[in-house]
Design brief:
6-stranded mixed sheet; 7 helices; alpha/beta
């Protein structure tokens, strides 16, 4: 009877946090947000031409978003062109980073130690002498194993985006660049340049997140891509 009660208490008390996470995060939750809204001037049909320059410098090189982004933009009535000089819009993007975190660890909850201590405390309530020691060890192991079964995983994909549009006839657009260059060990050189350009440029950052218990990147990848594609094509 004591043995049964021991296991019930161990699994019930120690596994409470893990069970809550498993139930609360059983469904995949995906969100995509832009750091800033970009508003473009409406143009007639003949000017709906787009040049794409899409990169991926993250460690997840299997992410290929160029073709689906081009298809989504084309489906909105735009023509994808290979010559940047012939395009009214330029869309330049780079998948900068794809990161993985366990929110249970990040938030300082259930890092394994707490679960082991709780399990050991329950085990110490049973038996005496060598039996109590054994129950304490087993209780600690139950805590660790229970905690290890559940991870609150979130994947975060960060994409930098720049979109340029041709300026209207008669509009003069200038671009100012400032740089501080190191000169030897103790000096700096300040460089400023002003250039007349024919395009207005806008920048934003797209952050996509996928969260689920015990989530793998293979399970999250398509949903993260879908959010990125929708955001990029939605600008036009």
């Amino acid at each position: 009877m004591k043995l049964i009660l021991f296991f019930i208490l161990s699994w019930g008390v120690v596994g409470c946090g893990a069970l809550h996470t498993a139930v609360d995060k059983k469904d995949l939750q995906v969100e995509t947000q832009m750091s800033a809204t970009i508003m473009l001037e409406p143009v007639p049909a003949e000017k709906r031409t787009v040049y794409l320059q899409l990169r991926n410098t993250s460690d997840k090189q299997q992410i290929d978003y160029a073709t689906p982004v081009a298809n989504a933009i084309a489906a909105k009535g735009y023509t994808i062109v290979d010559d940047p000089d012939q395009a009214h819009y330029w869309i330049q993007a780079n998948v900068l980073q794809v990161g993985r975190s366990d929110l249970r660890s990040v938030n300082g909850r259930d890092k394994g130690y707490g679960a082991a201590i709780q399990g050991a405390q329950i085990g110490s309530m049973f038996g005496d002498g060598d039996g109590q020691v054994a129950a304490t060890v087993v209780g600690g192991l139950i805590g660790v194993l229970t905690d290890a079964l559940v991870s609150d995983i979130v994947y975060v994909m960060i994409t930098d985006l720049q979109i340029s549009e041709k300026a209207k006839d008669g509009v003069r657009v200038t671009e100012t660049n400032e740089a501080t260059l190191k000169q030897g060990e103790s000096g700096n050189v300040q460089q400023d340049s002003v250039e007349i350009v024919g395009r207005k440029k806008y920048q934003t950052r797209i952050t996509s997140t996928a969260n689920q218990v015990n989530l793998t990147f293979e399970e999250a990848e398509q949903q993260l891509l879908q959010g990125l594609i929708q955001s990029m094509s939605g600008i036009l």
